[in-house]
UniProtKB/TrEMBL annotation:
InterPro entries: BlaI_family, WH-like_DNA-bd_sf, WH_DNA-bd_sf. This is Putative transcriptional regulator. It comes from the Bacteria. Belongs to the BlaI transcriptional regulatory family. It holds the Pfam family Penicillinase_R. Keywords: DNA-binding, Transcription, Transcription regulation. GO terms for biological process: negative regulation of DNA-templated transcription. It comes from Owenweeksia hongkongensis (strain DSM 17368 / CIP 108786 / JCM 12287 / NRRL B-23963 / UST20020801). Gene3D superfamilies: Penicillinase repressor domain (1.10.4040.10), Winged helix-like DNA-binding domain superfamily/Winged helix DNA-binding domain (1.10.10.10).
Length: 123
């Protein structure tokens, strides 16, 4: 399945669907912070997500229960790959270097990254 780029509103809906592991439009609206969008607005965004093959639904009478077709991890990987290729020449080290230089990555976080790398080498 090809993952498609999502708008901010579509990502917000996907975050809710991942958290709820699916739901009806009313369930999605209940999770959105104030000011809440109109029912039709959320319904339209969800239908767009269905068209993008990111979400599917099961019918329950006249309503539909929507569920994600991709995991949050799959979409996160897609976003990170795009970020790295678009801004850091596909290099993880370039990305880490950028955050270190901008002082947005402290020593503890850098140590945590190194531990994760070491643990993955062993497995």
């Amino acid at each position: 399945m090809e993952i498609k780029e999502l708008t901010k509103a579509e990502e917000e809906i996907m975050q809710i669907l991942w958290e709820l592991d699916g739901g009806f439009v009313k369930d999605i609206i209940a999770e959105i912070s104030e000011p809440k969008p109109a029912y039709n607005t959320v319904s339209t965004i969800v239908r767009i997500l269905v068209q993008k093959e990111m979400v599917d639904h099961t019918s329950h009478g006249k309503s539909h229960r929507y569920h994600p077709l991709i995991t949050k991890e799959e979409y996160s990987k897609y976003k990170m790959d795009n970020l790295m290729s678009g801004y850091f020449e596909g290099s993880f080290s370039n990305m880490v270097s950028f955050f270190v230089k901008k002082k947005q990555l402290n020593t503890k976080e850098l140590d945590d990254i190194l531990k994760i790398i070491e643990n993955n080498k062993e497995s």
